[in-house]
Amino acid sequence: MVRVGYPEWPPAAEEWRCPFRIWGLGDESIHFGHSVDSIGAIQNALRGIYGTLERLGVPLRWEGLDDDAGDDTGFSMDTNTGYGLAFRHRIERMILDEEAKLPDSTRSRVEQERREARRKARAKARKEPQVRDVDMPAPFEPTSRSKYIRWIAERHLVRRDAVGSIVLVCMSDPELLSRKRVWKCPFTILGLGDDDSIHLGDGDDSMAALQNALRGIRCTLDQSGIPLRWALQGLEENDTGFPMDTDRGYGLAFRRRMEQMIQAEIEELVRPIRERHERREARRKARAKPQTE
User: Fold this and answer.
1) Could you tell me if 17 and 43 are in contact, meaning their C-beta atoms sit under 8 angstroms apart?
2) The DUF6968 domain covers which part of the protein (predicted)?
3) Which residues are CB-contacts of 2 (< 8 A; sequence separation ≥ 6)?
4) Count of CB atoms within 10 A of residue 110's CB?
């Protein structure tokens, strides 16, 4: 079982942290995703979960999916690999290019399979809510309940087309609609001209709703066409901190192929750096070696 807690700012801390915990794999201690804002802490907690599950290598499958779904935990790699915005944009273009190569029949079949998987998962009797999902965001439903929402995380973005204008992104915690047995995670984006709208990322469990809310935020910001930047010193232009992830809704095989592609690109990027470091280390050891007569 995997759980994520609320982001928090501990006393005397210099950054936000978001706790996460994985039961059943040996180490059941609480870990944290850290960041300069509360949404970033959530994102890094999700990255920490993905990294932990990948590193352990235990074959796992999200409960509720069919056996033929393979080792699909619903945690996917995103394109924010820590190597800069230009590298991230190149990876995202590569993913979109690979996606465009898929035949229309594949896209239709995958969408039908996703609908069937959701139907089976919802029909399955559960003793308690599960903690995973892999759906892409459904159409976001605007509501007018902002005064009843408890916002748990936020991010400030700077509008580059209007001096001094700020866009505020807020997220709430997922909630279960018991009648439909669907989880919903509310989010809103203030400053894009639709300040009263609350949108919902939905999923078959609370983690999925949280993930789909993050995907929904990215989609909404991209579709607005407004040039935005995360309101932090030193960041590159047009970096909102909401990256694309490899779960594009085309199944586990496509996602794994995209993850392997990203790892290959990272290796190509860091290999010259590693080789330079190894050469410097070899020269240092050679100089430190005692000279023999």
Assistant:
1) no
2) 2-54, 153-244
3) 20, 21, 22, 23, 49, 75, 131, 132, 207
4) 16
Q: Is 256 helix (H, G, I), strand (E, B) or coil?
A: helix
Q: Which helix (H) or strand (E) element contains residue 20?
A: strand 16-22
Average pLDDT over residues 64-71: 60
**pLDDT tens per residue across span 154-212:** 999 998 887 778 899 999 999 987 666 789 999 999 988 766 688 999 888 899 999 99
191, part of any domain: yes
User: Which of these, 74, 78, 80, 79, lies nearest to 2 by C-alpha position?
Assistant: 74
Q: Which residues pair with 283 in a beta bridge?
A: none
Helix (H, G, I), strand (E, B) or coil at 183: strand
Contact in structure between 14 and 28 (CB atoms under 8 Å): no
Domain assignment of residue 288, yes or no: no
280 domain residue, yes or no = no
Alpha carbons 34 and 41: distance in angstroms, whole number: 5
* Count of structural domains within the chain: 1
Residues in CB range of 86: below 8 A, 6 or more apart = 236
Q: Which domain holds residue 216?
A: 2-265
Q: What residue type is assigned to position 121 of the chain?
A: A
pTM of the model: 0.77
Task: Please state the separation of Cα 80 from the chain's center in Å.
Answer: 9
Assess whether pLDDT exceeds 90 at residue 79. Answer: no
